[in-house]
Specification:
Order of helices and strands: HEHEHHEHEHEHHEHEEHHH
CATH class of the largest domain: Alpha Beta
Strand content: 5-15%
Helix content: 25-40%
Bound molecules: 3-methyl-2-oxobutanoic acid
Length: 274
């Protein structure tokens, strides 16, 4: 809090300056209520395109649209007071040209009020990142396992084993050199994540990568244990909300069927006396 009672917002230079310093805490959020919960604890809140799989039941992130990202971005904005907000650019809205990326990113920033956008890709996206940054659009990059390229990568496998490691290292160096303020390293081997963290001068944010990254990000539904079937191995579950929610729903259903659903008398006492 500042002296005026206003909550001090996390700024982009602060995040960029955390290289090698206090680890950066990042979680995804797609709704106002979750944004309110994470705001106090996170430095960065990511409106990830994982929203397509997590909230909309899509089989991959490929079907996510700019409109979906804007709608969820607006919801998250209403719940944040201090954390830095980053919104993903979805598949097909930035890869064609730097101009296309600028149009999409500018729309996302203007309509959601986010501080930065995230896009996937390394060497191949470096010129686009440079174009955006030079025009006032801060970019978080994302290399390693890039879910929008799931078909090219042949699944959601760990990246960076063998010769692949040099390519991913080159990707990370290229996005850093192009002006990205941070880079997500998804599902790369710990040794590669450590090499990248050493090699680039921007913060690395790991997801299933290495404890030595400059920060960590998780999909909030994964770490809260919302899903029983889908449980990525690298995710530590801090709660079992899916199991608890189902138990609560079952208890409610049982109460209704047995006609013991709490009525006004449980809240106000004996209503016949009123
Ligand atoms: O879409 C997303 O949630 C992400 C994180 C997993 C980094 O990109």
């Amino acid at each position: 809090m500042s002296g005026t009672g206003h909550i001090k917002s996390v700024t982009l230079p602060e995040i960029a300056g955390r290289k090698g310093g206090e680890p950066i805490v990042c979680l995804t959020a797609y709704t106002t209520s979750i944004a309110q919960l994470v705001d106090r604890h996170c430095d960065v809140v990511l409106v990830g395109d994982s929203v397509g799989m997590v909230l909309h039941g899509l089989p991959s992130t490929l079907g996510v649209t700019l409109e979906m990202m804007i709608l969820h971005g607006q919801a998250v904005r209403r719940g944040l007071e201090r954390a830095l907000m980053v919104v993903d650019l979805p598949f097909g809205t930035y890869e064609e040209s730097a101009a296309q990326a600028f149009r999409s990113a500018a729309r996302v920033m203007a309509e959601t009020g986010c501080e930065a956008v995230k896009l996937e890709g390394g060497v191949v996206m470096a010129e686009t990142i440079r174009f955006l940054v030079q025009r006032g659009i801060p970019v978080m990059a994302h290399v390693g396992l890039t879910p929008q390229a799931v078909n090219t990568l042949g699944g959601y496998k760990v990246q960076g084993r063998g010769a692949d490691a040099e390519r991913i290292l080159a990707d990370a160096k290229a996005v850093a050199e192009a002006g990205a303020f941070s880079v997500v390293l998804e599902k790369v081997t710990a040794s590669l994540a450590d090499r990248i963290t050493e090699a680039v001068d921007i913060p690395t944010i790991g997801i299933g990568a290495s404890v030595n990254c400059d920060g960590q990000v998780l999909v909030i539904e994964d770490m809260l244990g919302m899903f029983q079937e889908f449980q990525p191995k690298f995710v530590k579950r801090y709660a079992e909300l899916g199991r608890d929610a189902e138990a609560a729903i079952a208890a409610f259903a049982e109460d209704v069927r047995r006609r013991r659903f709490p009525g006004p008398e449980h809240v106000f006492g004996d209503t016949t006396q009123r």
